[in-house]
Amino acid sequence: MRHFRIPLDLPHAGRITVRLVRVLEPAIDRSNPAHRAVMDTCMTLLDHLAPYVLSGENPPDTRAEQAAAYAADLGRDLVDGLVAAGLARDKVGQCIRNLFECLELGEEGARISLLAGENPDSMQRP
After folding, report:
1. DSSP symbols for 17-72
2. Does 121 map to a domain?
3. pLDDT for res 97
4. CA dist 2 to 5, 95, 120, Å?
5. pLDDT tens-digit series, residues 109-122
6. Is residue 14 part of a domain?
7. 2 located within any domain
8. DSSP letter (8 states) at residue 103
């Protein structure tokens, strides 16, 4: 599957997570447990990436790889939750793809962004 390849950028992954929260918030029904779980996962991801957003840099190599792997695990959980909660849509999928691109997982991001609702014919896709 075609995808963008960019170097690891944890600070930008955090900024994308902020964008994702903003995109999701209007659709969240706090009385719905599945919606709350999605937001909880988003906030866990944001908390994890916040130090890199604030520093504007990736940590040293080994820590960066570990941080990216954990962020990717949270991203996968998030996609599962989005699908289960019926919150998948184009802008959400674009954010998921961008997140995974920043984690050096562009191919996986291109694939799972479709599950998260990204339009396969979007001009934003590679």
Report:
1. HHHHHHHHGGG--TT-HHHHHHHHHHHHHHHHHHHHHHHTS---HHHHHHHHHHHH
2. no
3. 96
4. 10, 17, 11
5. 999 999 999 999 88
6. yes
7. no
8. T
Q: Containing domain of residue 101, as a range?
A: 10-115
**What is the CA 25 to chain-centroid distance, rounded?**
15
In a domain, 58, yes or no: yes
- Dihedral of CA 110/105/73/58: which sign? negative
**68 Cβ neighbours under 8 A, 6+ residues apart:** 8, 10, 13, 103, 104
pLDDT of 126 > 80? The answer is no
What are the tens digits of pLDDT across the range 21-69? 999 999 999 999 999 999 999 999 999 999 999 999 999 989 999 999 9
Three-state DSSP class for 104? coil
- Whole-angstrom Cα distance, residue 31 to residue 67? 32
Number of domains observed in the structure of the chain: 1
